[in-house]
């Protein structure tokens, strides 16, 4: 079963099916088997066949599949594969730019996570988010940066991407979707850096992060978990709220309904 409150979604290339079981045992909230970017054009058919064979014999947790984008040669075959297997828990659609892109997956009968990777996708966010079958939103930071013509790994690029995160968050909330998932972070050998990146995404309203290496999982989970002092504060608030008073103080801070809701969210994340 997929954890809908997942903090980590780990990519595995479909060309390496022996890694899928390892990924499923890694502690990741979900595993995404990739048929797109990590698979060379001349290996798409073999990758699809490998994934088909895996799914025919797999009786463990469900997986997500990142298919090739609408309009590519592999799109129809990828969607048909996902439709055939109940162990495909959802489809990640790259380069989503319209509601029509999502609707082209309707016959697969799977939840969809659109990846926003272009200016067109950003402009269509509200209609994409409101399209039936969309479960939550995510984005591809590198492809989006390339499409927008911004220089990656710079302060300016982060400011622009933060604007994109803002739009994704607001459209997700307005459409009643599950909270969005942040893009991949290319660093996996610096646990502190990964944790800080995840914490920043958490503070911006995101529920998790796309991961490219199993070593990122623990660090990302740590970043999305509330700190000890937050849990302590939230526990005090919820204990005090049992009094039934409309408003009260905890540690010198006035507490009312929105603050109680925040404390409840913190304790849910801590679990």
Automatic annotation (TrEMBL):
Against InterPro entries, the record matches this protein to: Aldolase/citrate-lyase_domain, Citrate_lyase_beta/mcl1/mcl2, Pyrv/PenolPyrv_kinase-like_dom, Pyrv_kinase-like_dom_sf
Which keywords annotate this record?
A: Lyase, Magnesium, Metal-binding
* The protein, known as: CoA ester lyase
Matching entries from PANTHER family are given as: CITRATE LYASE SUBUNIT BETA, LYASE BETA SUBUNIT, PUTATIVE (AFU_ORTHOLOGUE AFUA_4G13030)-RELATED
HpcH/HpaI aldolase/citrate lyase domain segment(s): 7-214
Cofactor dependence is on:
Mg(2+)
Per its UniProt entry, which superkingdom is the organism in?
Bacteria
Q: Which Pfam families match?
A: HpcH_HpaI
Q: Name one GO molecular function term.
A: lyase activity
């Amino acid at each position: 079963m997929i954890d809908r409150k997942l903090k980590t979604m780990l990519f595995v290339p479909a060309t390496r099916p022996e890694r899928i079981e390892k990924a499923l045992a890694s502690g990741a909230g979900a595993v995404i088997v990739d048929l797109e970017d990590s698979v060379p054009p001349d290996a798409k058919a073999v990758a699809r066949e490998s994934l088909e064979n895996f799914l025919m014999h797999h009786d463990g947790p469900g997986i997500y599949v990142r298919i090739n984008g609408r309009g590519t040669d592999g799109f129809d075959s990828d969607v048909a594969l996902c439709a055939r297997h109940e162990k495909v828990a959802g489809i990640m659609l790259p380069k989503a730019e319209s509601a029509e892109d999502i609707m082209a997956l309707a016959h697969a009968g799977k939840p969809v996570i659109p990846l926003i990777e272009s200016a067109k996708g950003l402009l269509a966010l509200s209609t994409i988010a409101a399209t039936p079958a969309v479960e939550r939103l995510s984005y591809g930071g590198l492809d989006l940066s390339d499409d927008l013509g911004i220089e990656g790994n710079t302060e300016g690029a982060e400011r622009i991407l933060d604007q994109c995160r803002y739009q994704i968050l607001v459209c997700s909330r307005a459409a009643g979707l599950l909270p969005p998932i942040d893009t991949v972070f290319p660093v996996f050998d610096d646990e502190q850096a990964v944790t800080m990146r995840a914490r920043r995404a958490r503070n911006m309203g995101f529920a998790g992060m796309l991961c490219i290496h199993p070593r990122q999982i623990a660090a990302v989970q740590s970043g999305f978990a509330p700190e000890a002092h937050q849990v302590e504060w939230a526990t005090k608030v919820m204990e005090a709220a049992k009094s039934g008073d409309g408003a009260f103080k905890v540690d010198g801070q006035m507490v009312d309904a929105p603050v109680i809701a925040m404390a409840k969210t913190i304790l849910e994340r801590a679990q």
